[in-house]
């Protein structure tokens, strides 16, 4: 009798879930219809900015703040990111260039930011991502800019200087490295294919578990997986997605030295982004070559109470021992708090370039 009661209760719960699913489906399609109307209105008014990152970030932030569980805030963010991705595709599918091939962390970052409905196109290099966006062959690009363990990706910084593009967003992705092969045990391997940053992020594990292997650097984690699939006696350090794509077995998971290993990616495009309330501004500048000049140059930032979350130096590529400095500031360039600070920095600097203001990563 007790079992019949339990089964009846389970049946009731499933009936209620089915009814809720029907309501959710109806509401999702209603939302999609409104999104389609937004797209039609934009076409009528000549609004070319069909994707508004500040609007998406504000919606996600509001919903995550309103969340009362039991779903986690991140789960809510991911669910609604996909809802917005599918609805945006009714207006116009977004084309996003990323460092390929399929299965790279950059692809995972692009999916996290743009959702499953985006049209992702892999390219062969970070420079090619910039070129695709500059030539309007892609609406946006996603590139790695810094890792919590190994620091900045210098190629990305150099291309930010070279190309007249804007940063339109950022993505933070937890990085998990796996040892993969097509079934070859680690003791029987001779070669291990690995990206240079991945190698650095797994330094201790490699020294302890794979000192006998010849390490061969490749352009991406996905390329490492492809090589391991095609060669006898080879392994790779790669992503779970790449292992699935190339039919490889995961021999050891999570072999990165730092369990909090995270990479920050930038979304690049040709449009300026409006403020959303939790913004970040990136810029690059140089100071006169004299003692104390950098401290004097950035003094207005501290005086205005603006938080500087990052500063990074790079050779200026003109003049011996000349440097430029990449800065990330909290706030948006169009706000009254930051506008006068940027104006003063531009006046004092020997070189000044605003790279963009954009929403901070939501999850």
TrEMBL record:
Q: What is the annotated role of this protein in its UniProt record?
A: Catalyzes the Claisen rearrangement of chorismate to prephenate and the decarboxylation/dehydration of prephenate to phenylpyruvate.
Q: List the molecular function annotations (GO) for this entry.
A: prephenate dehydratase activity
Return the protein name: Bifunctional chorismate mutase/prephenate dehydratase
Would I find Protein transport among this entry's keywords?
Answer: no
- What main location does UniProt list? cytoplasm
In terms of domain of life, where is this protein from?
A: Bacteria
- What is the protein's species of origin? Thermithiobacillus plumbiphilus
Which keywords, in A-to-Z order, does the entry hold? Amino-acid biosynthesis, Aromatic amino acid biosynthesis, Cytoplasm, Isomerase, Lyase, Multifunctional enzyme, Phenylalanine biosynthesis
Any idea where the Prephenate dehydratase domain is? 95-270
């Amino acid at each position: 009798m007790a079992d019949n009661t339990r089964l009846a209760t389970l049946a009731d719960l499933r009936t209620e879930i089915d009814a809720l699913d029907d309501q959710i489906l109806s509401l999702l399609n209603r939302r999609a219809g409104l999104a389609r109307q937004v797209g039609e209105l934009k076409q009528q008014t000549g609004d070319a900015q069909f994707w508004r990152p500040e609007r998406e970030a504000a919606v996600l932030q509001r919903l995550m703040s309103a969340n009362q569980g039991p779903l986690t805030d991140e789960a809510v963010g991911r669910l609604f990111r996909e809802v917005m991705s599918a609805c945006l595709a009714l207006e116009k599918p977004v084309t996003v260039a990323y460092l390929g091939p399929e299965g790279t962390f950059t692809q995972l970052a692009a999916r996290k930011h743009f959702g499953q409905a985006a049209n992702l196109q892999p390219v062969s290099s970070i420079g090619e991502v910039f070129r695709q966006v500059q030539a309007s062959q892609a609406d946006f690009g996603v590139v790695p800019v810094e890792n919590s363990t190994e620091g900045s990706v210098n190629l990305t910084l150099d291309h930010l200087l070279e190309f007249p593009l804007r940063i339109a967003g950022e993505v933070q992705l937890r990085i998990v490295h796996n040892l993969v092969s097509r079934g070859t045990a680690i003791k029987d391997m001779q070669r291990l294919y690995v990206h240079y940053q991945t190698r650095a992020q797994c330094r201790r594990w490699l020294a302890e578990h794979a000192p006998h292997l010849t390490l061969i650097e490749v352009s991406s984690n996905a390329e490492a997986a492809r090589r391991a699939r095609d060669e006898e006696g080879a392994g790779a350090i790669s992503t779970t997605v790449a292992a699935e794509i190339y039919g490889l077995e995961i021999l050891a998971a999570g072999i990165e030295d730092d369990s909090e290993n995270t990479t920050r990616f930038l979304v690049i495009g040709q449009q300026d982004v409006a403020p959303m309330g939790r913004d970040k501004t990136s810029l690059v500048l140089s100071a006169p070559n004299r003692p104390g000049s950098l401290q004097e140059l950035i003094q207005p930032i501290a005086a205005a109470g603006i938080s500087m979350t990052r500063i990074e130096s790079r050779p200026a590529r003109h003049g011996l021992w000349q440097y430029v400095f990449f800065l990330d500031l909290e706030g948006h360039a169009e706000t009254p708090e930051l506008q006068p600070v940027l104006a003063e920095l531009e006046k004092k600097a020997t070189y000044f370039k605003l790279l963009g203001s954009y929403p901070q990563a939501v999850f």
